[in-house]
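Task: sequence design from structure.
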């Protein structure tokens, strides 16, 4: 005799983990790390709380995996966008802007990343650390390519440029993330790229401009003298 029992949908291990991670990410975004509860995550994933511990040993490990997935998706989009941009200045400007835009659009995830994941003793052993290293290495590659193309000085310290960019961004967004200040990704990216390419020495910059004008004037005078001699002959 057949019964009308509802059919139980059995998910694979990978599908169940994705379901839990999606629920956990929503809970972490809404409540932060301290406020998030495993019971709420379980309810959001449609599983009993004990099921979560089959895949994750504790809440910290679960958060780290959520950040990893978020980072992987983010970097995939970065790569696709960057591939369409040409020129060292434009590519570096994009990397700065994209970093700022992520902080602007995803403050909850960035706070979790800075406070919980990056601040942990095991951070350097996580996939998040490796993903972040790959991300910042892309900026180093752009600077190196700019040097090879003759767009940048050949004596640049690649790692120092990287540190100036990401250290500068992090310092700039601190108030926005924890103090409620404003953040304009476009304006900050433009200002930072102008400083990187122009420097802060206005006097030296003006001296370079004067020298360039002087060189052009000397060349123009030489050309006039040359034409005058040719006409006399």
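Answer:
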């Amino acid at each position: 005799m057949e019964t009308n029992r509802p059919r139980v949908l059995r998910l694979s291990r990978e599908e169940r983990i994705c379901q839990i991670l999606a629920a956990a990410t929503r809970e972490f975004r809404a409540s932060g790390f301290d406020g998030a509860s495993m019971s709420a995550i379980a309810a959001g994933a449609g599983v009993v709380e004990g099921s979560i511990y089959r895949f994750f040993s504790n809440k910290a490990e679960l958060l780290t995996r959520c950040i990893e997935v978020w980072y992987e998706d983010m970097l995939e989009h970065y790569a696709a966008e960057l591939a369409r941009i040409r020129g060292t200045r434009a590519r570096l400007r994009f990397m700065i802007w994209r970093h700022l835009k992520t902080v602007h659009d995803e403050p909850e995830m960035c706070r979790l990343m800075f406070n919980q994941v990056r601040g942990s003793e095991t951070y350097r052993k996580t996939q998040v650390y490796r993903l972040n290293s790959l991300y910042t290495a892309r900026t180093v590659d752009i600077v190196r390519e700019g040097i090879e193309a003759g767009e940048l000085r050949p004596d640049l310290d690649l790692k120092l440029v990287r540190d100036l960019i990401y250290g500068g961004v992090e310092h700039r967004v601190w108030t926005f993330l924890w103090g409620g200040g404003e953040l304009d990704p476009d304006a900050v990216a433009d200002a930072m790229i102008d400083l990187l390419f122009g420097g802060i020495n206005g006097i030296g910059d003006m001296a370079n401009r004067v020298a360039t004008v002087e060189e052009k004037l000397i060349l123009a005078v030489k050309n006039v003298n040359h034409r005058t001699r040719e006409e006399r002959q």
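Confidence is low (pLDDT under 50) at residues 203-207.
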